[in-house]
Each structure stands twice: as structure tokens, then as C-alpha cells.
């Protein structure tokens, strides 16, 4: 297999051009899929027999929650690659992931709290799942704060990569908190290996919304990566020519 | 489904529509902020490239 294209991604000019070209191919399909899935989730899928119409919140809550753990894992892996192989673009990618991750984490907590009010009778409980998700939001904010507080880009990359790698311990805690502890939060409804707890008529819009969130995240990361590359390559000839 | 029942969502309309509204705002915020950051970094790079290309003694535009 020819891996030249993959190695080329480590080159800032190539990655910049690649991200610029890829962005619209991710953004517009994401919007189209989001509109379709939101329409299905709001108006087409049947009412849940226990939760009534309040369950329709899952179509925006569950994909956001999934994104938070996936983005953080990607950030930590990119940080490790940056530390081990000294690949600057891996650090740039990790930096571009932080803001989307923080926004998705805040969105997860906000929509989850609003769903919790009619279902549990409270906006917030110190449940293991909610608390570990809140910790993840603080990790994202801490990552951005640490990166912003160090002027030297190389030092900021190394310090934030270490924080991302250490913080990954929170990801299995979030995932398995509903199984390890007596949690108020419901157990996993979706599984790759077992039968889903959600009815087939309700699951398709949810999976489509997840795909839409992934594509949207990809488009935002393309923009973020371009911003990071420009910031890091300010003094390089190729950027001066481009600018 | 009528407009009234869609808006009411049983008795959960306020919760459901608030969640979808917050989501829409958050996604717009994210797309706009990241795009603007890229544009401002590019503007800065253009300014630096312009300053570097200028000959010594060449007047700067005010």
C-alpha cells in the first residue's frame, strides 16, 4: 500500500491545502444530515411510552456526548504522537480539537440537565456519569488555559500534550460509570456488539445525527487546523507567498 | 401533527425546544469562532508578509 499521502500530511503546506479543500465536503453534508435527523427526531419518530416527547432530546444530547469522548481520545493520541515522534502537526491537530471538544461537553451537560429536570426532578445530581463528564469539560478548559498561558509554542505543545494524556483516564470512567457504580443515569442504549435497547424506528435518526456531528466536527477541525498552521508558520516562505 | 402539538411536545415543549435551540446556537458559535480565528491569523500573516516585502525606507500606508 502506498503511504506517501499519509506522510505528506505531516507537511504544513500540504496539510493546509488538504484541510482547506476537505472542509466544504464535510460541512455541507453535515448540515444536510443534521436538518434531516432533527426533523425526524422532532416530528416523525413515535413518542416514547415512558418518557413521552421529552426523549426527543436524545437526538442532540447523545451525539454530543459521544463526540466529547471521541474528541478527547483523538486529542490525547495526537498529543502522544506529537511527543513521541515530535510531529508538530499532531500538536496543531490536538490544539484544534480543544474548542470543539469543550463546546460539545458544555452542550452535553446543558441538554442533559434540561432532560433531567422533567425525568429526574432535578437539573443536576452528583451522579458518577454527570460528574465525570463535568470533569471532562474542566479538562478541555484546562487544556486551552494551559496552552494559552505559555508563549513558547513548543513548550505549550509539550505541556498540553502531557495534560491530554493524563486526562484520558477520565474517558473509561465516563463510559463505564453507569456500570461500575449505582448511577441515576440510564445504562448504555447503543452497543456495537449487542442488540440496541432503542427501537429500530428511533435509532436511524440518532445514528444519522451522530454522523452529522462527526462531519461537522471534521469541518470545524479543518478550519482550526488551518488557523493553527498559519500561527505556527508565520515566518515561513510558503505562507508569505500564500499571504 | 399540528403546529400546536409540535410546539407543545406533550408537556415537554419548553425542554425539547430549549435543547434544540441551545444546540443550534452552540454549533453556530463554534463554526463562526473557529473560522474567524483562521481569518485573523491569516490577516496577521499578510501584514507580516507585507512588512517583510517592503524595502527599507519605503513609506508605510497610514
Structural class of chain A: mainly alpha
Number of strands of chain B: 0
Ranges of chain A where pLDDT stays below 50 over 5 or more residues in a row are: none
Mean pLDDT over all positions of chain B: 82
Overall strand count of chain A = 0
In terms of quaternary structure, the protein is: heterodimer
Shape of chain B: rod-shaped
How many individual helices of chain B? 2
Largest sheet entry of chain A:
none
List the chains of the largest interface with their residue counts.
Answer: A-B, 40 and 33 residues
Total individual domains of chain A: 1
Helix content of chain A: over 70%
Query: What is the residue-averaged pLDDT of chain A?
Result: 91
Radius of gyration of chain A: 20 Å
Could you give the order of the helices and strands of chain B?
Answer: HH
The coarse overall form of chain A would be: globular
**SSE sequence of chain A, one letter per element:** HHHHHHHHH
General description of the model:
The complex is a heterodimer of chains A (243) and B (62). Chain A has 243 residues and is an all-alpha fold. Chain A has one domain (54-184, 198-242). Chain A contains 9 helices and no strands. Chain A has helices at 4-8, 12-44, 58-85, 88-120, 128-149, 153-167, 170-180, 200-232, 237-242. In chain A, α2 (12-44) packs antiparallel against α8 and α4 packs antiparallel against α8 (200-232). With 62 residues, chain B is an all-alpha fold. Mean pLDDT of chain B is 82; it is low at 57-62. The A-B interface holds A 27, 34, 38, 42-43, 47, 52-54, 56-57, 60-61, 64, 96, 99-100, 103, 106-107, 110-111, 114-115, 117-118, 216, 219-220, 223-224, 226-227, 230-231, 234-235, 239-240, 243 and B 1, 6, 9-13, 15-16, 18-20, 22-23, 26-27, 29-31, 33-35, 37-38, 41-42, 44-46, 48-49, 52-53.
